[in-house]
Amino acid sequence: MVRYRPNVAALILNTNGSLLICERSNMPGAWQFPQGGVDNGESIEQALIREVREEVGLGKNDYEILESREGYRYLYPPEVRERKIRKNGNHGQEQTYFLCKLKPTAPAINVHQTPQEFGAYRWIPPNEFDLNWIPSFKREVYRAVMEDFFGIRLEAAGNP
Length: 160
Fold this sequence. Notes:
Number of helices: 3
Order of helices and strands: EEEEHEHEEH
Number of strands: 7
Largest sheet: 4 strands, mixed
Distance between the termini: 30 Å
């Protein structure tokens, strides 16, 4: 039986409608949304609040949750799947995405948290998100998320 680890991800829009993306500190050129696993005993909304605070320094009063959608799944790549199965019994992740609007009074994003998952961030129009920034095993999820939330059909170079 395939098991998926519960995970949350934040699509954070600023007051101009630009989308927050963050570059992984251990993978230059890999940009993604703030996200992370749901801890035992935690609701998905509690996990979102914790992950956003840990990864980009925003508190729960700095943004408003507009909507959420669940059921986005991916399997870990074969080269790490066996290790993940041994570690926590999961073959992949099942994500709930939250569309959030940054409040005008919110502080600046701070990706220099401890531990530092991200080394940089930027704000982009949603239609400028590039699927080539994402490892291939996650691209279908990101493609679906961008279409579901923004009505944008993204393609990766060489991967229609």
